[in-house]
Specification:
This protein has about 270 residues and is mainly alpha-helical. The protein folds into 2 domains: about 5-25 and about 180-260, Orthogonal Bundle (Endonuclease Iii, domain 2); about 35-135. The protein is about 55% helix and about 0% strand. It has helices at about 5-25, 35-45, 50-60, 65-80, 85-90, 95-100, 110-125, 140-150, 155-170, 185-195, 205-215, 225-235, 250-260, 265-270. The protein starts with 6 loop residues before the first helix and ends with a helix. Bound molecules: iron/sulfur cluster (SF4). Iron/sulfur cluster (SF4) binds near residues 195, 234, 242, 247 and 254.
Length: about 270
């Protein structure tokens, strides 16, 4: 006999699925990736500059997300306002490195990023006829989309599923299914999933990914943004702001924290 689902986790899952599907359902909007309108405009222009979005995803390593998302727009400024594939594909890896480094460094891994950008642009030119939107055009399956993204130098599952989630959720790219779009189990998502009681070990990315698959097999990544936003802004490592958390009523950690504060003095409660 299969174990009956934990009712609390089931309610939490229902809440997160509903929230995630509502985000997928809203009409296409301008995504504030960086908060700088000019930089974001390039990333949102997936019709004319789909490679800008792709390159930003590939840059999302070991830096804050906003810094990675800023990269294409800042490179465009260094290239005198141009960012078309024809121009970018003329750049050597050394040219990319120069652009990445001066006058100020644009990423903490300039050599890695120069190699990644150079190879990505060449791949877009040769495999996708200079149009990166071919990667997601034509309603491919989610597995096909993720595999196409993984083929880029520097793209692991975390980057590939993040890109796939954004394409479906924010740019309303049509796929034949969403079954293989996982959560991108970064430090924020792992912490929130652990505190909510989805997983027992905060450090275990694989367990988080499988827990999301288990919770919503048709689209495991539907939770991704809600959990990431909560982890980044509310459920901070040292002092989660539970009073402002939309998952307050469902949370294990919050409940045990409340129990722990019972019986403590006011100043002790402030330390928690
Ligand atoms: S209720 Fe508190 S501990 Fe639970 S997810 Fe929200 S912020 Fe984190």
């Amino acid at each position: 006999m299969p174990e009956p689902p934990d009712p609390r986790l089931q309610r939490l899952t229902d809440h997160l699925v509903q929230d995630g599907m509502a985000r997928v359902g809203v009409p296409t909007r301008f995504v504030a990736f960086t908060g700088d309108h000019a930089l974001d405009a390039l990333l949102n222009d997936i019709e004319h500059h789909p490679h800008a979005f792709l390159l930003a995803c590939l840059a999302d390593r070991q830096v804050r997300a906003e810094k990675a998302w800023s990269l294409p727009g800042l490179l465009q400024q260094r290239l005198g306002g141009h960012f078309d594939i024809a121009l970018l594909s003329q750049l050597s890896e050394t040219d990319w490195l120069d652009l990445m480094r001066s006058p100020t460094p644009l990423h903490r891994l300039p050599e890695t990023m120069a190699r990644t950008m150079h190879r990505a642009v060449l791949r877009v030119r040769t495999e996708w006829a200079s149009d990166a939107s071919g990667i997601w055009r034509g309603e491919p399956s989610s597995a096909t989309l993720v595999r196409r993204l993984l083929a880029f130098h520097g793209a692991g599952p975390k980057i590939a599923t993040m890109a796939a989630n954004i394409l479906v959720r924010d740019f309303h790219v049509q796929l034949s299914d969403c079954r293989y779009i996982d959560i991108s189990a970064d430090v924020h998502i792992r912490r929130v999933m652990y505190r909510l009681g989805f997983v027992q070990n905060e450090a275990n990315s694989d367990d988080c990914i499988y827990a999301a698959r288990d919770a919503n097999p048709e689209f495991p990544g539907v939770f991704d943004l809600a959990l990431w936003e909560i982890g980044r802004k509310i459920c901070r490592p040292g002092n989660p702001n539970c009073d402002h958390c939309p998952l307050y009523v469902h949370c294990n950690f919050r409940a045990s924290r409340c129990r722990a504060t019972e019986g403590l003095t006011g100043s002790q409660q402030g330390d928690l």
